[in-house]
Write a structure and sequence with these properties.
By secondary structure, chain A is mainly alpha-helical. Chain A is built from 15 helices and no strands. The radius of gyration of chain B is 24 Å and the shape is elongated. Chain B is an alpha/beta fold. Classes of the chains: A mainly alpha, B alpha/beta.
Chain lengths: 244, 330
């Protein structure tokens, strides 16, 4: 626990001691703004909600989260500092968790900085704050899902570009599993149960459910178990690399 | 005896390559063991397995009684490790880096303050404490790595090329630091600087092709040199070579340049007797007036080259040294 905290603190501080954090946050805020106001037609809809804002989060995360995750392990492997890290008296699990939590908290900080959006919509009308809080929670969990996938893939290579590209592809599959483009393909011939199974693996399905303001335990369990699954895979990869 | 490091039948294969091929040894407290060997001999790989960074293909490692495979955290807590190339986190400053290591190692506030003072003073980091590590010179980076390794005052130190990239003064400082700590620790260093072994190691081990090919005190290894106890004599008189060859304990005489001769003693590869008295006696009997008469300085690099240069020699000595290791362990 104390060691997880030490890793967590070092990693989180690491983001802010380089330009990475600032570049990421500025770009994240800039893109959420563009998506919300131009592509999401925030004003044209004339509705006091943040749907146009949250709707684009999966697509934004699809590229931005792997960009954060790609360096988690690949950079350490490249620079050799992984040798230092893995010979310190701490369990691999606490390292995996510490790194993940630091990156997650960092993304949550970036997400938190979109609060002017909430203020704007509150100023303009009477939004359902419960729905907005639920959407923020859903967005947070979804970011964690993307991050866990990216962290795991980063552990498998020392090349950050490879880690990024593969992460984007895997994240893309997890995103679109519930989109019409995939479901229509199955809908023509597959039974409803298979359709539901595929859709249930999708970030979109679960995120949309939460975005509607209903925090279903199943959606929470989905995201948390997905995160745990990928972190566990991350752990196995780090341990397997020791033996190779 | 209290063995701090016990390595037993260590093997590591990468595909078809046997990088480490059955290495066994034990290191007690108070010993500084020097790993010598050409690049790629398996020194670093052995160290990576002792410190738990790599899992061995076969064999076991115990550090301070803890098996590195089954009790990795307890074993790692006993070790200070300077990996090859002294990796660190480039965006951190030395002081934040050392504090991070202290956090992970769970040092309490008082110990931390005391140990930080000690390592910063002894490794001479005062001037660069607040500079990002990536901006430091190679020598300072190496010292940050060393500081990190000794921060928790570990009973076992594994240092992979601790003086690489340091200037002669810094080398000297690091060597005296290691010598100071040697008394109550078990230390393994790897190096290809042979004088370093003479300077700080109480035991030297030559590793070649993943195997231990020689193991003993630096003095014992030096006695395996083909030049061990050879005598140099510079003498203008006639018939010097013949007269020297006729001596009972002389193997052969080699004419170096002009009137300089090198006289090789008889004896087994590691039992060459001293012949200087005999040669001096002969010179005075023959009324020679040699301008030089000296014993060859023992040279570890001769041994190193003769052992790691030819495979045939290697195997012969390997069988000899394995007997020696057993004798020592008993």
């Amino acid at each position: 626990m104390a060691t997880t905290l030490a890793i967590f603190r070092r990693e989180l501080r690491g983001y802010f001691s380089t330009p990475l954090a600032y570049v990421f946050i500025v770009i994240f805020l800039f893109l959420t703004g563009i998506f919300t106001f131009y592509m999401g037609s925030f004003f044209v809809r004339a509705q006091a909600d943040l749907k146009p804002f949250f709707n684009f989060h999966p697509w934004l995360y699809l590229f931005l989260v792997p960009a954060i995750a790609m360096r988690l392990w690949a950079e350490e492997r490249k620079s050799g500092s992984i040798e230092l890290l893995l010979t310190l008296p701490l369990s691999t699990w606490s390292t995996v968790v510490g790194k993940f939590l630091a990156a997650w908290v960092f993304i949550i900080i970036a997400l938190g900085l979109t609060f002017p959006m909430w203020i704007t919509v509150s100023y303009l009308g009477q939004p359902d704050h419960g729905v907005i809080i639920a959407s923020y929670l859903g967005s947070m969990l979804m970011a964690g899902g993307y991050l866990a996938i990216g962290a795991c893939i980063s552990a498998a290579t020392k090349n950050q570009v490879i880690a990024f590209v593969i992460s984007v592809v895997v994240c893309f599959l997890f995103t679109v599993a519930g989109a019409p483009v995939v479901l229509d393909f199955f809908a023509a011939w597959a039974p409803q149960s298979l359709l539901d199974a595929v859709a249930s693996f999708s970030f979109l399905t679960h995120f949309n459910a939460i975005q509607n303001g209903v925090i279903d335990v199943r959606d929470l369990v989905y995201f948390l178990s997905l995160i745990l699954f990928w972190l566990f895979a991350n752990l196995l990869i780090v341990d397997m690399k020791k033996a190779s | 005896m209290d063995w701090m490091i016990e390595v037993d039948g260590l093997v590591k294969t990468f595909g078809h390559l046997r990088a480490v091929d059955g290495v066994s040894f034990k290191v007690p407290k108070g010993q500084v063991l020097g790993f010598l060997g050409p690049n790629g001999a398996g020194k670093s790989t052995t160290m990576k397995m002792i410190t738990g960074f790599m899992a061995p293909t076969a064999g076991s490692v115990r550090v301070a009684g803890f098996d590195v495979d089954t009790h990795p955290i307890a074993a790692k807590a006993q070790i200070g490790y300077l990996p090859e190339g002294a990796p660190a986190y480039p965006d951190m400053t030395p002081i934040s880096f050392l504090n991070f290591i202290a956090d992970v190692r769970g040092m309490d506030a008082a110990t931390r303050a005391e140990r930080l003072d000690y390592v910063i003073a002894n490794v001479h980091l005062e001037a660069v404490l607040e500079q990002p590590i990536e901006t430091l010179s190679k020598g300072f980076k190496r010292r940050v790595g060393l500081a990190q390794a000794i921060l928790h005052n570990p009973p076992v130190l594994i240092l992979d090329e601790p003086t690489d990239g340091l200037d002669p003064n810094q080398k000297h400082e690091v060597r005296s630091l290691i010598a100071d700590m040697a008394k109550d620790k078990a230390i393994i260093i790897s190096t290809h600087i042979l004088e370093e072994v003479d300077a700080i190691c109480s035991r030297a081990m030559i590793i070649n092709n993943g195997r231990v090919v020689a193991d003993g005190t630096p003095g014992e290894l030096e006695s395996q040199s083909p030049l061990f106890n050879a005598v140099l004599i510079d003498c203008q008189n006639d018939g010097v070579a013949d007269a020297l060859t006729a001596l009972s304990n002389v193997e052969r005489v080699e004419q170096m340049e002009g009137s300089l001769y090198r006289v090789y003693p008889k004896g087994s590869p590691n039992g060459k007797q001293s012949i200087i008295a005999e040669v001096a006696d002969l010179a005075s009997r023959q009324n020679w007036s040699p301008s030089q008469l000296t014993v060859e300085a023992p040279r570890l690099d001769e041994v190193f080259r003769s052992i790691t240069g030819a495979a045939a020699v290697t195997d012969a000595i390997a069988s000899e040294t394995s007997d020696m290791t057993h004798g020592e362990a008993a």
